[in-house]
Amino acid sequence: MVFSVFLGLHLFKVTEVKAASLTSSGLVSHAYRAYNEHWSYVWGGASPGAVDCSGLIYSYGGAGGCHSSGGMIANSPESGSIGSIPNIPGLGLWTNGHVGVYVGNGMAIDAENERLGVCLKPIAGRWSKWFKVSGVSYGGGSGGSGGSASSSSSSSSSTKKSIQSSTPIVQKDETLQLGSSGDMVKALQTRLGELGYYKYSDTGYFGNETKEALEAFQAKAGLNVTGIFDSKTATALSSDNAPKATTIYAKGMKDDGDTGSVRDIQIRLSQLDYLPAESITGYFGDETETAVATFQSSSNLEATGTVPPEVKDKLMAENALMNPNKGEMPLGTTGEEVTKVQQKLRELRYTTAAATGTYNEETMTAAKAFQEFNGMNPTGSLNRGQRETLFSANAVKSPTCLLYTS
Questions:
Q1: Exposed e or buried b for every residue in 301-312, given b needs 16+ CB within 10 A?
Q2: Whole-angstrom Cα distance, residue 131 to residue 122?
Q3: What separation, in Å, do the N-terminal and C-terminal C-alpha atoms of the chain show?
Q4: Could you give the CA distance from residue 202 to residue 74 in angstroms, rounded to a whole number?
Q5: Judging by beta carbons within 10 Å of its beta carbon (0-12, 13-18, 19+), is residue 259 exposed, middle or buried?
Q6: DSSP per residue over 299-361, as a string?
Q7: What is the DSSP letter of 117?
């Protein structure tokens, strides 16, 4: 029976599925259809084009027996913890208040929320249990009662054939490699990006950037470095313990878009007065390299101009050192800090004038004398580092009690 459903601006032609014909491969194809056609997330929805999480499954001919995530797990003839999930595409996935469809090789499709709609993502860290969906055949008879991981081998080949013809899912004996394209490549790029290996747009095309990112992950995970996405790599990538990339930010790196880690580094350097605000571009160029090196030198770190994790941690810390060579007090500056500077200059015998709270000519003359006797460039305007020395135990007192004049 064929009928049409009009939703918004999209006209979907839908073939009604009889409950008796529900299969695990059919459920996977149904989920991929929802993903490829960009079905909307609508709370309480269970019609093609507009579904919530349980509605995605229930809209496949009433699979699951009810339109409820809790009811679906309760109706299931078999379930287990997510760590023991068999590689049977078409299983249901459950976490508190939410369900999705396992599509194989560590990937799932679910109706996530109103903003994201129907998504294809790795299962790692998202789900608590797997379950056989009530009413769906897993190769051991109808009703979802058969088809354990060991008894579903006869159905896996038919599942594979069905999925291969209509979806980009990767099966156990298939691979993704240089030149591959499709949604599975896009999902691979997303996961590699989450782990810090892939720093480009998710294009769905397996190019050199994807190959290099995958090779870096394989090396970090202790796998054979082939640059080819296979079942072993899929298992490692979908693990909660998948190793993250060790990123060293350096000259030539660039953010993809208006946000990113390079821009975050530049913003922090600007906050600490190492980089002017107009240089926050998202591109790690000469000016950023110099600013990083200055921060490293000021913080008693090796001045490499690069930002490995340990340098980034120090840079982002609340107590990160402000640029000691900036923050000068020019003539006319006022405030409590000026008063303290004037009092300290008087205490060290560089002036006999009373503190006024205004950085005047008399203060500048005394500051020049302090700089001169402490081995600094005598500009008369004290920067942060010089003021730190002024208040330290290493500050050299004036050898005379004379009032310095210009």
A1: eeeebbbeeebb
A2: 17
A3: 99
A4: 37
A5: exposed
A6: TTS---S-B-HHHHHHHHSTTPPP-TT-----TT-BSHHHHHHHHHHHHTTS--SPP-SB--H
A7: E
Strand order in the sheet with 40-41: 40-41, 50-51, 46-47
pTM passes above 0.85 = no
Tell me the residue length of the chain: 406
How do the pLDDT tens digits run along the chain, 406 residues long? 222 222 222 222 223 334 448 899 889 989 999 998 899 999 889 999 999 999 999 999 999 999 988 889 889 999 999 888 998 999 999 988 899 999 887 889 999 888 888 988 888 778 989 999 999 998 743 333 333 333 333 333 333 322 222 233 344 456 899 988 888 888 898 889 888 888 787 888 898 989 999 999 999 999 999 999 998 898 888 888 889 888 789 999 888 766 678 999 999 999 999 999 899 999 999 999 999 999 999 999 999 999 998 899 899 998 999 998 888 888 899 999 999 999 999 999 999 999 999 999 999 999 999 999 999 999 999 988 899 899 999 999 988 755 444 4
CB 385 within 8 A of CB 394: no
Residues with Cβ within 8 Å of residue 368, at least 6 apart in sequence:
378, 379, 380, 404, 406
Classify each residue of 11-40 as buried b or exposed e, where b means 16 or more C-beta atoms within 10 Å of its C-beta. ebeeeebeeeebbbbbbbbbbbbbbeeebb
> Do residues 335 and 329 lie in contact, with contact meaning Cβ atoms separated by under 8 Å?
no
